Structures are given as structure tokens and as C-alpha cells.
Amino acid sequence: MKPDDPLLRILACPLDKGPLHLLPATAAAGKDGTAAVDGAGEALYNPRLRRRYPIIDGIPQLLPSSGEQVSDEEHETLLARVSEAHMTAGNMAEEHMAEDHTSGNDTRRPGTPGATT
What is the pTM of this model? Predict the structure, then answer.
């Protein structure tokens, strides 16, 4: 699942009905030097209830029984991953906007201040 997936806007925690945050899979170097998933696969996280819901084969598992409670220490780690994912997604959006601007593709509607026709 990608951070800009529109599905993320409508998915909600099955317990408190609040928004969930995407936790991308973390990779660690394997023995042969290639990236290997270290067991922390993709998941959706509810920091209010400190519950993590797995994403298996691209499908969020959002049954209340599928979520797992996380410890205080893991909660802090997951909050850092959420923050990092948001910063990365923000940087990608800024780069995309900069590419549009430098390539001459004006994404503003004609008639708006600063738009070129």
C-alpha cells in the first residue's frame, strides 16, 4: 500500500472509528547484502489505542481481533516510523510539485492569480 493511496483516507480503526496511519515495511540488510524484511511488515497503526493492524498481501486486516496492542516502548518506535513516513511523503509531494513547476507544467487553473495561459 502506498502512502498516497486514497483508500487510506477512508479506512478507520474498527474500535474507535478514528484515522489510521500507514507503517511501511522496514527493511534490513540480509546476509547476502540485499534488503530483507525484518518482520516489521506493512501495518496500519492507531496511536490513540496503541493498536497495530497488519496488512497481508496488500489487504488491511481490520477486524478488532486482528489488531495487537503494543508496548510503551514499541509505541514510541512506531510513532517515529509514522513521523518518518509522513516526512518522506511530504518530500515526495514537494519534489513532484517542483518538477511540474520547473518543467513549465502550470497546474493552476487558468484565471487564477499567477497562472499562465
Answer: 0.64
Residue ranges per structural domain of the chain: 7-102
Q: How far is CA 70 from CA 19, 24, 26, 52, 112, in A?
A: 17, 17, 17, 7, 48
Instruction: Please answer whether residues 63 and 56 qualify as being in contact, where contact means their C-beta atoms are separated by less than 8 angstroms.
Output: no
Three-state secondary-structure class, residue 19: strand
**From first to last of its 117 residues, what are the pLDDT tens digits of the chain?**
787 888 889 999 999 999 999 998 875 444 444 444 445 689 999 999 999 999 999 899 999 999 999 999 999 999 988 888 777 766 555 554 555 444 555 555 556 565 555
- DSSP 3-state of 101: helix
Residue 53 three-state SS: strand
Q: What is the CATH number of domain 7-102?
A: 2.20.25.10
